[in-house]
Amino acid sequence: MRFCLTIACCLLATTVWAQPPKRVVPEMPAPQVLWAEGAPGAIGMEDTDKPALWVFLPPAEKAVGSAVVICPGGGYGGLAVGHEGKEIADWYNGHGVAAFVLRYRLAPRYKHPAPLEDVQRAIRTVRSRAEDYKIDPARIGVMGFSAGGHLASTAGTHFDEGKADATDPIDRVSCRPDFMVLGYPVIALGSEYAHQGSKKNLLGAEPDPKLVELLSNEKQIKPNTPPTFLFHTNEDTGVPPENSILFYLGLRKAKIPAEL
User: Fold this and answer.
1) 202, 215, 235, 258: which one has the fewest Cβ atoms less than 10 Å from its Cβ?
2) 254, 222 Cβ separation under 8 angstroms
3) How far is the C-alpha of 152 from the C-alpha of 187, rounded, in Å?
4) Residue 246: partners with Cβ closer than 8 Å, 6 or more residues away
5) What integer pLDDT is reported at residue 25 of this predicted model?
6) Is the bond leading into 137 cis (omega within 30 degrees of zero)?
7) How far is the C-alpha of 33 from the C-alpha of 35, rounded, in Å?
8) How far apart are CA 9 and CA 12, in angstroms?
9) Cα–Cα distance between 206 and 165 in angstroms, integer?
10) Helix count (H) and strand count (E) of the chain?
11) CB atoms within 10 A of CB 64
């Protein structure tokens, strides 16, 4: 039932991202950094070195107790925080869902595993503060667009249940999302359908084939990969729809609830 409601939300939400994208930088709330003492592997002190969440909470009278971490796209070299971030968060808030837009680290300054560390930390952070945000810690999903869809799908195929002996209490919390929503996602990095710009920004010009395989997420689906809703358009030439199709087929093979 929870997964069906997620799908219904996504179908309604198409009215938001079907509009022509706005290129102005939106007004955002103050970001909440994910590591107070600095992110692992940070190489500077600029905002771009500090992964963070922009927090959007629904009115208390509308809140339904679920949440989503949103990963804007941008080819792992930028962040479309307007039409793939704030506008989506505002829509979710209108339907009572708490939304957290992720500012993750990008090329050329950062490559894998920095973005994955950032989204995992984001999910752990939201779950660890579920009581503060008045959300159910078992109803926290991840959503992503394009390269952000790759990052979201990586969160759903590369996760852990937390490190029980960690000194940081946030690191003791699971980073597994409870559901995924993937919009025109980059997925199959090792195939002819790969989005080469995202692949290069994330892994470099000549990546190790084993790393490409590891992050070709249609090949990394596990029995506990979360239920997933995907949407794509047939005419997409930047990120071919085969990316979503291959992931969907992988989910079907693993008998994981999925809709495309």
Assistant:
1) 235
2) yes
3) 10
4) 187, 188, 191, 193, 218
5) 64
6) no
7) 6
8) 5
9) 37
10) 8, 8
11) 16
Does residue 251 contact residue 221 with C-beta atoms inside 8 Å?
yes
DSSP tag of 82:
I
3-state helix, strand, coil in the chain (%, to 5): 35, 15, 50
**Cβ–Cβ under 8 Å, residues 152 and 84:** no
In the chain, the amino acid numbered 116 is: L
State the Cα–Cα distance between residues 98 and 56, nearest whole angstrom. 6
Residues 169 and 176: their CA atoms lie apart, in Å, by 16
Identify the weakest region by mean pLDDT among 12-21, 115-124, 200-209: 12-21
The gap from C-alpha 93 to its chain's centroid, in whole angstroms, comes to 17
Cα–Cα distance, 138 to 111 (Å, whole number) = 30
Q: Which pLDDT value is given to residue 13?
A: 45
